[in-house]
Amino acid sequence: MAFLFSFFATPAFIKFLSRRGYGQHIRDDGPKTHHVKRGTPTMGGIVLILATVVGYLTSHLVTGVVMTTSALLVIGLIVGLGFVGYVDDWLKVVKQRSLGLRAREKLLGQALVAGAFGVLATRFPDDLGLTPMSEYLSTVRDTSIKLGIGIVVLWAIFMVLGTSNGVNLTDGLDGLATGAAVMSFLAFVLIGVWKFGQRCEIAATTNCYTVRDPLDLAVLAAALAGACGGFLWWNASPARIFMGDTGSLALGGGLAGLAMTLRTELLLIPLGGLFVIITLSVIIQTTYFKLSGGKRVFKMAPLQHHFELLGWGEVTIVIRFWIIAGLCVAAALGLFYAQWVVA
Q1: What average pLDDT does range 139-146 have in this prediction?
Q2: Residues contacting 7, CB < 8 A, separation 6+
Q3: Is residue 221 in a domain?
Q4: Which of 32, 220, 240, 329 lies 20 to 30 Å from 178 when distance is taken between CA atoms?
Q5: How confident is the model at residue 189, as a pLDDT?
Q6: Residue 304: inside a domain, yes or no?
Q7: Cα first-last separation, the chain
């Protein structure tokens, strides 16, 4: 349902944005090949968010299954970050420049949404005393490292800021971030279903999982993957619409929210491996530039633009980066399953 909504609603939204002239502004200091994209409709993340919510709600209306607190909190995180991104996109469209919100303003908005999620996610225990987010640091399951409520909230803010901005940095070529996000969300579907089948309430083994609402979180992950898949049809090169910060911040929030509620926080590093690599390229470039007095490691950061300036075609870069993203997801799922086998 999420895929179908996204697939059919996106072209209608493209027409709506085009009639009002809500197009993308392109930086003059970026790759010159991007200038042809000037004016392409943006803020497509609105469709992504709506498709996800429609897919998730429809599944519950059809089956009659009650919605869970964990999934609703992740949806709230997605919508909240999407709103911050929307304000940023709207200012870019109105002012016709590549800068919307100031960096501090955007980070503050993201931090407030993430902080609210962290506070609420440590409440609402179920009959077994499980809250949507645990007080313990998790890898593929909770570890013995207890963080405490205050540190958990700060950790949630850190994870959301890192992941949402990582997806935002990756969203620089047609379909790159959307395609990589599909793979990560599908991995969360598998993890959620597996943890549901191996939860401690039913598993006759000590090697079980204590997670609240894992199956419903898998449903939400499937809705996110479907929404991205439908949107990718129109976002692939040559893109007819961009997701904008509305979509990239929301998708990043979805990844972080699922990782925290499914108790796979550190596993998110390989699960979102491409986003991590691209974020590191920006950190390396900025740090080296300051320390070396103006020298650069890459021709341009984020990393995908470095390869553009080397002469690689956009489609070639996207496909090869998708391969990297797929390998990272496969490695993450391998680590997840290997831990269960060893334990």
Answers
A1: 93
A2: 229, 230, 231, 233
A3: yes
A4: 32
A5: 98
A6: no
A7: 37
Q: By residue range, what is the domain housing residue 35?
A: 2-270
Instruction: Find the largest Cα–Cα distance for the chain.
Output: 62
| 46-97 tens-digit pLDDT | 999 999 999 999 999 999 999 999 999 999 999 999 999 999 999 888 776 6
Q: Tell me which residue has tokens 């968010």.
A: 49
Residues 135-142, mean pLDDT to the nearest whole number: 94
Q: What percent of the chain clears pLDDT 90, i.e. is strictly above it?
A: 81
Q: How many domains does the chain divide into?
A: 1
Give yes or no for residue 39 having a pLDDT over 70. no
90-97: long-range contacts at Cβ-Cβ below 8 A with a sequence spacing of 24 or more? 90/43, 92/24, 92/25, 92/42, 93/22, 93/23, 93/25, 93/42, 93/43, 96/25, 97/25
**Kind plus residue range of the DSSP H or E element containing 251:** helix 244-261
- Backbone torsions φ then ψ of 146, nearest 5 degrees: -90, 130
The backbone torsions φ and ψ at residue 164, rounded to the nearest 5 degrees and listed phi first, read: -65, -40
Helix axis angle, 69-95 to 244-261, nearest 10°: 160
Flag whether pLDDT at 24 surpasses 90: no
In a domain? residue 226: yes
Q: What pLDDT is attached to residue 29? A: 54
Cα–Cα dist 116/131, whole Å:
15
**CB-based contacts of 101, cutoff 8 Å, min separation 6:** 84, 87, 88, 91, 109
Quick check: is 92 in a domain? yes
Question: What letter does residue 202 receive in the DSSP assignment?
Answer: T
Considering the chain, what is the average pLDDT of its residues?
92
Rg (CA), the chain: 20
* Pure H helices in 64-141: 69-95, 103-121
Q: pLDDT band at residue 319, thresholds of 50, 70 and 90?
A: very high
Tokens linked to 130: 């499980």
C-alpha neighbours within 13 Å on the C-beta side of residue 147: 18
Average pLDDT over residues 11-33: 72
Would you state the structure tokens that stand for residue 307, as one six-digit string? 């390869």
The CA distance from 150 to 280, in Å, is 27
